[in-house]
Design a protein that fits this description.
Elements lengths: L13 H12 L3 E7 L5 H11 L3 E6 L11 H20 L27 H19 L4 E6 L6 H13 L5 E8 L8 H10 L4 E5 L5 H12 L7 H9 L3 H7 L14 H10 L3 H11 L4 E3 H8 L3 H13 L3 E4 L2 E4 L2 H9 L3 H17 L9 H11 L3 H17 L3 H14 L6 H5 L3 H15 L2 H17 L6 H17 L5 H11 L7 H14 L5 H18 L2 H14 L7 H13 L2 H17 L3 H17 L6 H15 L3 H13 L4 H17 L3 H17 L6 H17 L3 H12 L7 H19 L3 H12 L5 H18 L5 H14 L2 H17 L3 H18 L2 H14 L15 H11 L4 H8 L3 H15 L4 H10 L11
Parallel strand pairs: 1-4, 1-5, 2-3, 3-4
Antiparallel strand pairs: 6-8, 7-8
Helix pairs in contact: 1-2, 5-6, 7-8, 8-9, 10-14, 11-13, 11-14, 15-16, 16-17, 17-18, 18-20, 20-21, 21-22, 22-23, 22-24, 23-24, 24-25, 24-26, 25-26, 26-27, 26-28, 27-28, 28-29, 28-30, 29-30, 30-31, 30-32, 31-32, 32-33, 32-34, 33-34, 34-35, 34-36, 35-36, 36-37, 36-38, 38-39, 39-40, 40-41, 40-42, ...
Length: 961
């Protein structure tokens, strides 16, 4: 391989380069660039970066055995920024100039602002990185390039997902490159790519192999002249259009370097084997590092001084096997490094990695800060030295925890566990016993969301404690049981309440302890979502008593919040003031945010919609101040959107919910968002979107069926029933209602059961012959413990629908319901009640009053964009305005409504067709027909129709009969 063997011109990628430029012009956004190894992803990105009118930040993911380095590409980007604008320059781009969070990624920023390892700290770190990019973009377009994402660690993937989902309006383009041939079916990057690809501003680009004409152009560029006859055809056939292979195949004399290579490895090694032997030796040394290796580290490993190392490597650089990269070197392609490393003999492999480990221990400054222990863990493991691999892995886990890289922390701790039996004095070496390592690993798994693995680790730790006499280790046993209970709940597995109860039993009531107070509060918080509300109240009260006795303000606030949630009365809010005061005294961010969640939830349930929206918005502001707006603040989006929907501010609500859905929120939050966005879509006449949201919500409901909160479970059934009603399938609507009939006594039962029961009554009215189902629905409603004006409005609506289902149109009942919804400021429900009120009024013959109601309802529905409701109102209004006889009474002693029904009977309509035409139930139509037959003294519908025709009751004026 000669010095010409890398084309200075990008060949065959004009379309892809143009797409990258288009994406930058349309930023914010992201481009996912995939392709097999050697197809030129890096070459494409370099050309784009060279020509882009933007600040291009490049970071690469590093291959280090099976362990990625936590946040490695972002550390590289930050180091480059510090080099360009200095630490003060970076500080000027982050909120309040506080770079403490960035210290987790780059030690140059000092010590982290907190030693805590928590989801909140991780969220704040992500927010700081996003803010840094957005502030940079205020000065001009920014391109963040993350290369080789197939090697990305879990933390890097999480941060990337967060950044792409939360890009604001500034010109920031994120470019991600990865090898498609590395993405096996279970590769973790697949899930990230699938999730990002669904976002509107994300493009996916797959590099293909070069066409025959492009192969010819590349060969010409490499040779500097037209290729001899037949060469392009042979290279095209052997390389299959892969640029890396084309360059590897081409020799100095313009012929194929190796006509028939036995394998790809042989092909890649051919260029290395033409180099001087001493250069090949150093390349073997370099292959033991990662894709990139610092000059000083390679000098230490090879034993050469600077001058000798530079002289030895010059042929490799000239042949483009190595490229100079800052103060170090990188193989021109990772495949070359892999081929060289794989060619080592077993003894060479062990000795090489031992030299790496010893060099790093002698001089830790040979690698950037933050990489030392994970590098040592890797090299000692490759050198088969279990003792020092275990020690280094333990230290690496601590560094990963400090960097909030929980998945990588878990990987290092699991390596400690794997090596434990090979190191007899492991406890003395790391200062921790086996149970401690298991507990730390379980905590890392919990924080990383690896709940299944976490449950197994906790179970293993509990077995170890029990085997060693668990009675003397009650605190650790209780902590483990509580942790397993929480993770079992997250996985929708049985036994979560039993674990939490066992945790409480393991801790003595006397003397009182903060640990018992916490265990009690956790038990209360989880048991309240089951039917054991009394137990939730009791344990919350005990937790509160302990917290007050110990003077623990955080535990006190947590207990008060749990107690409030377990005993909610939407007509009484005095307890809220006590909870608010306790949350303020605690001064704890998570506690304060939890208070804003429960307060906004309570206010919406009480029908105080405007207050609820304002409180949720304030909670989101606090989340922003705490640096967790786009993570924990997302949970408050549903509490803001729900009252906005109630108030008829649907566009605002949809903007809030769509943004929240883009964040890939937790299951329970996502269910609520799906249901509410689905309902708004349904009301606006978009049945396709409503059904798609319902289907997704159903899938989640199947996943967590047994322990879904009432809010998630009943609301999904409510949406399902309403969609069925809109499609004219009342029987299917009743199918959706039935599970609510059989699940009484759940928390917040009345709040979420009432809307479903109303839908059930509507379905019975439409069916006209569902007396048995109606009785069950009425019985379920009678058992609800209602509180607050919102539930009263639902109850009044239910009473009116219940009468309608029995064939009675009660104007007084609908008047009360409409007034209740008007008082709450809910325009949609008011409009719907006015429609029913108008129907009942029309049945009594007062067309003018009905028309006035319908005009008000039409105005409300029109302002909302509630198309389905507006169409029903308009149809009834047209009939209300239809020509009719001069007085309020009709001939033959019929009421105006009976007169309308007789007209339809005379047209040959069935009861169902009459019901659909007049927007009444089938049963009501049947009652009207029976009354007509009695008043006309006839025995059948046919006789009634004949009487109407004989008397010319419906003849047009001037028509001769």
């Amino acid at each position: 391989m000669n010095a010409r063997a890398m084309s200075p011109v990008l060949v065959g990628r004009a379309a892809e380069l143009g797409e990258l430029r288009d994406a930058l012009a349309a930023a914010p956004g992201a481009v996912l660039v995939g392709g097999d190894a050697g197809l030129g992803k890096t070459r494409l990105i370099r050309e784009f970066a060279r020509t882009a009118d933007a600040n291009v930040l490049v970071g690469g993911c590093l291959e280090l055995g099976s362990d990625g380095l936590p946040f490695a590409p972002f550390t590289t980007v930050l180091r480059g920024l510090v080099r360009d604008i200095g630490i003060e320059g970076v500080a000027g781009l982050v909120p309040r100039g506080d770079t403490g969070g960035l210290a987790r990624l780059l030690p140059e920023f000092g010590e982290p602002e907190s030693d805590a390892a928590s989801g909140e700290e991780r969220a704040r770190l992500f927010e700081v990185v996003l803010t840094l990019l957005e502030r940079l973009a205020e000065k001009g377009p920014v391109v963040l390039v993350i290369e080789d994402a197939h090697w990305a660690d879990r933390s890097t993937r999480d941060l990337l997902a967060f950044l792409v989902r939360n890009l604001g309006v500034g010109p920031v383009l994120i470019v991600l490159t990865y090898r498609t041939d590395e993405l096996h079916r279970a590769h973790p990057l697949r899930r990230l790519l699938a999730g990002l690809e669904r976002l509107e501003r994300v493009r996916r680009m797959e590099l293909g192999r070069l066409a025959r004409a492009d192969v010819s152009a590349l060969v010409t560029e490499l040779l500097g002249q037209s290729p001899p006859p037949g060469l392009v055809e042979r290279i095209d056939a052997r390389s299959e259009g892969n640029p890396l292979f084309i360059e590897a195949l081409l020799d100095d004399d313009g012929e194929l370097a190796c006509e028939l290579p036995e394998s790809l490895r042989d092909l890649l090694l051919a260029g290395v084997q033409r180099l001087p032997e001493e250069t090949q030796d150093v390349l073997r040394d370099a292959s033991g590092g990662s894709t990139r290796i610092e000059h000083a580290l390679l000098a230490a490993v090879s034993g050469l001084d600077d001058a000798a190392l530079t002289r030895t490597l010059r042929p490799a650089v000239a042949a483009n096997v190595l490229v100079v990269d800052g103060d170090g070197y990188a193989f021109r392609h990772a495949l070359i490094r892999e081929a060289v490393h794989d060619d080592l003999l077993p003894g060479e492999h062990t000795r090489l990695h031992t030299r790496y480990a010893e060099a790093l221990e002698n001089d830790p400054s040979l690698v950037p800060a933050g990489r030392l222990w994970v590098e040592l863990s890797y090299h000692w493991k490759q050198a088969h030295n279990s003792l020092w691999a275990l020690v280094a892995s333990w230290r690496a886990a601590g560094e990963a925890r400090k960097a909030l890289a929980y998945a990588e922390c878990l990987a290092m701790l699991e390596r400690v566990l794997q090596l434990w039996d090979r190191v007899p004095d492991a406890v003395e070496r790391i200062g921790a016993d086996y149970v401690r390592v298991l507990m730390d690993a379980a905590t890392a798994a919990d924080l990383a969301g690896e709940f299944d693995r976490g449950i197994k680790l906790v179970t293993a730790a509990l077995k170890e404690i029990e085997a060693a006499d668990g009675e003397h280790d009650t605190e650790r046993r209780a902590m483990l049981l509580e942790q397993r209970g929480r993770m079992r709940y997250q996985m929708a597995r049985p036994g979560f309440v039993e674990d939490l109860r066992a945790a409480v039993r393991a801790l003595p009531a006397d003397p009182p302890s903060a640990l018992r107070a916490r265990a009690l509060s956790t038990l209360g918080n989880y048991v309240r979502i089951t039917t054991d509300i009394d137990e939730a109240r009791n344990v919350a009260r005990e937790s509160l008593a302990i917290a007050r006795k110990l003077g623990d303000p955080v535990a006190e606030a947590e207990a008060l919040i749990t107690l409030f949630c377990a005993d909610t009365d939407y007509g009484y809010d005095d307890d809220l003031a006590e909870v608010e005061a306790a949350a303020d005294r605690a001064g704890n961010h998570p506690v304060l945010l939890r208070y804003y969640v429960i307060k906004s939830h309570f206010l919406e349930g009480a029908g105080r919609h405007a207050e609820a929206a304002a409180v949720a918005a304030r909670g989101k502001e606090l989340a922003r101040e705490y640096g967790v707006a786009r993570t924990q603040g997302t949970f408050l989006c549903i509490n803001q959107a729900e009252p906005l929907v109630s108030l008829g501010r649907w566009d605002e609500a949809m903007a809030v919910m769509n943004h929240a859905l883009e964040q890939d929120p937790a299951i329970t939050t996502r269910t609520s968002l799906l249901v509410l966005t689905g309902w708004v879509a349904l009301a606006r006449g978009d049945l396709a979107t409503a059904k798609e949201r319902l289907e997704t919500s159903r899938e989640i409901k199947k996943l967590k069926m047994k322990w879904l909160k009432t809010q998630d479970y009943f609301s999904t059934l409510w949406l399902e029933a309403n969609i069925a009603l809109a499609e004219g399938r009342p029987a299917a609507a009743l199918d959706a209602v039935r599970p609510v009939l059989g699940h009484a006594g759940l928390p917040d039962d009345a709040r979420y059961a009432w809307p479903v029961l109303v839908a059930g009554a509507v379905a019975c009215a439409e069916l006209g012959d569902a007396a048995g189902e109606l009785a069950r629905i009425e019985e379920r409603a009678a058992g609800l413990r209602s509180s607050g004006p919102l539930q009263r409005a639902h109850s009044l609506t239910f009473d009116a629908e219940l009468a309608r289902a029995r064939g009675v149109l009660d104007p007084g009942a609908w008047e009360k319901a409409a007034a209740a919804w008007e008082e709450l400021g809910n325009p949609y429900q008011r409009a719907r009640a006015l429609l029913r009120f108008a129907e009942a009024t029309l049945a009594g013959g007062d067309h003018d009053a009905a028309a006035a109601m319908l005009r008000t309802a039409a105005e409300l529905a029109g302002e909302l964009g509630a198309r389905l409701l507006a169409e029903q109102i308009a149809d009834l209004l047209r009939r209300t305005r239809a020509p009719r006889r001069g007085d309020a009474s009709a001939p033959l002693g019929l009421t105006p409504r009976e007169f309308e029904v007789l007209r339809l009977v005379a047209e040959g309509r069935s009861n169902r067709e009459i019901a659909e035409a007049l927007f009444i139930s089938v049963k009501t139509a049947s009652v009207h027909v029976s009354n007509i037959l009695g008043k006309l003294d006839v025995a059948s519908r046919g006789e009634a129709a004949a009487t109407a025709h004989r008397l010319a009751l419906f003849a047009e004026p001037g028509t001769r009969v």
